Amino acid sequence: MVSEDTVFPPPPQASTVTVDETPSRVQLIAWTFVSAEVYDKLDHQDDPTNVGYMDADILAEYAGRTCYQSWSKPNPETATNAGYLRNVIDHQHFSVLEHASATFLITGVSRSLLAELSRHRHLSLSVESQRYVPQDEGEPVIPPLLRKYPAITDVLICAHKASIGDYEEIITALMARQADGDKLTKKEIREAARSVLLNSQPVSMVVTGNLRAWREVLTKRYHIAADAEIRELAGELLTILRRVAPNSFSDFPNQPFGNDTIRRSA
Ligand SMILES: Cc1cc2nc3c(=O)[nH]c(=O)nc-3n(C[C@H](O)[C@H](O)[C@H](O)COP(=O)(O)OP(=O)(O)OC[C@H]3O[C@@H](n4cnc5c(N)ncnc54)[C@H](O)[C@@H]3O)c2cc1C
């Protein structure tokens, strides 16, 4: 229990990460801050590579140094935050990356992407409900491959329109039964009607992961073998995660993992 005498740490340092101003399908909405004491303890002020450390990286180093109480930095290779975390990653001491987290609002992705993302058991998801939220608005999510083929994309757009039409037809028919006296709730009606919706139905969600969990996701989904839509999403996530914690993601390639890049554990 927090007593009245508890001394709280001072407010966090201003982070150089800002929330995205332009709406996009991936928006960073929360991330970890650390107290000034953590920075003071690590004392990186004279580090020439310190061009504005990120709190998430700093927290991982602080956690790692706590393990061995290794606050002095005799080895120049691990004296910087970048060097320290490179060593952590090389030695697969990934648990220190579990302390910091990043939360994203993800919108306009498909239900099939949701099925894949939700397989990652260390992520926390809050997902738009098809039982509570009417599904009769919005465009289908176009798979990346189809963007090259407008005529084939039209097939999907027609199928989507048809599915929304069927959805509305079921809702209207069930509401008529409700009006006739059948005991049906809106939620029951929507949950039955959603069964005609397509995999391309768009969905919104808030997703939180610690840095290790995000590394797991990226290792598998930022890969040429992954589904194209989630691979694109993984690329967007990686770009933002590199702003939150550049040194914790420094070993990731700039292109998806594939034949010429080594896929490593996270
Ligand atoms: C290219 C591709 C194709 C796929 N195809 C299919 C498919 O056809 N069918 C299908 O069902 N799935 C498929 N998947 C999903 C895949 O099987 C995994 O469910 C998904 O990638 C999550 O990975 P994960 O289980 O390793 O990791 P996460 O759930 O992200 O967990 C991370 C790591 O934690 C450890 N861990 C987590 N839970 C446990 C546990 N219970 N016991 C022991 N260790 C644990 C493991 O080391 C694991 O790698 C595919 C994935 C990819 C990338």
UniProtKB/TrEMBL annotation:
Its EC number is 2.1.1.148. Binds 4 FAD per tetramer. Each FAD binding site is formed by three monomers. It comes from the Bacteria. It catalyses: dUMP + (6R)-5,10-methylene-5,6,7,8-tetrahydrofolate + NADPH + H(+) = dTMP + (6S)-5,6,7,8-tetrahydrofolate + NADP(+). GO terms for biological process: dTMP biosynthetic process; dTTP biosynthetic process; methylation. Keywords: FAD, Flavoprotein, Methyltransferase, NADP, Nucleotide biosynthesis, Transferase. Its cofactor is FAD. FAD binds at S95, R119, H120, R121, N210, L211, R212. Catalyzes the reductive methylation of 2'-deoxyuridine-5'-monophosphate (dUMP) to 2'-deoxythymidine-5'-monophosphate (dTMP) while utilizing 5,10-methylenetetrahydrofolate (mTHF) as the methyl donor, and NADPH and FADH(2) as the reductant. Homotetramer. Belongs to the thymidylate synthase ThyX family. This is Flavin-dependent thymidylate synthase. It comes from Herbidospora galbida. The lineage of its organism: Bacteria, Bacillati, Actinomycetota, Actinomycetes, Streptosporangiales.
